[in-house]
Amino acid sequence: MSLAQLLQWNLSLFILILSRWAGMIMLAPVFGARGVPGLVRLGLAASITLILYPLIHAANPSIPNELFPYVAVVIKEVLVGLVIGFLIYLLTAILQGAGQLIDFQMGFTMGAAIDPVYGVQSPMMGNFQMILATMLLLSTNSHHYLIAAMVKSYAYIPINPTNLPSNYLFYAQIIGQVFSLAVQLGMPIFGALLVSDVGVGLLSRTVPQLNIFSVIFPVKIVFGLLILFLSLPFFGEAVANLFNINMSWVLKLYQGWKQ
């Protein structure tokens, strides 16, 4: 192999590794937040690629020499990164979904604001839970596990133009679990507020002259914030369980990928 061919092969391998990491960082929480500049995300992907390059190079992966097959492998690598990043992002979706349920019951739905991180309308309780969960995950170095899980992807999904996902039912099951986990996370506060609605309804039947609309909204907000405050000691354990479930999804994705 000539020097030019050696340089071409190494550059091609670097681009393939970078493509997978860029796809993951584009969607993953914290790394892919809208407030993080694109150059910073690209620099992070390139830095990780430089660190991993000797490990991937030692495996001597097969890289197509022709242009179109090589482009197909690049697209496949970006797709792998996007799928992994999307699965990790679902942790955010669970927290936002639970916050949406709580906001709906507390009457905060009309007060939802634009989330500057992702540029979409986001519930206030969802933002609060997401910020708190992010602080917990970063303080416990859980983002290191995300990077380690991504590195492990090369053991299951090597740089190879022939490996494709095989279990498409897995993705439908994951979406169903996301809704289920969001309801479970928000149900303690949602259920308590539902009970308060029943209590206020009985009060309105007992005291018909009471202006129920001037009472129910302040009562629900105060009661909801009280329940939220009382549930904070258990929030860390809930986030840890969600993170473990999220990592199990990533592992199942690897195991179900046809090689």
UniProtKB/TrEMBL annotation:
Membrane-spanning residues: 6-27, 39-56, 68-91, 130-150, 170-203, 210-232
Gene Ontology biological process: bacterial-type flagellum assembly; protein targeting
Keyword Ribosomal protein found: no
Location of this chain's protein in the cell: Cell membrane; Bacterial flagellum basal body
Alphabetic keyword roster: Bacterial flagellum, Cell membrane, Cell projection, Cilium, Flagellum, Membrane, Transmembrane, Transmembrane helix
Any single Pfam family the record assigns to this protein: Bac_export_1
GO cellular component: bacterial-type flagellum basal body; plasma membrane
Listed InterPro entries: FliR, T3SS_IM_R
NCBIfam families: fliR (TIGR01400)
Reported function: Role in flagellar biosynthesis.
Family statement: Belongs to the FliR/MopE/SpaR family.
Name of the protein: Flagellar biosynthetic protein FliR
Native organism: Desulfosporosinus meridiei (strain ATCC BAA-275 / DSM 13257 / KCTC 12902 / NCIMB 13706 / S10)
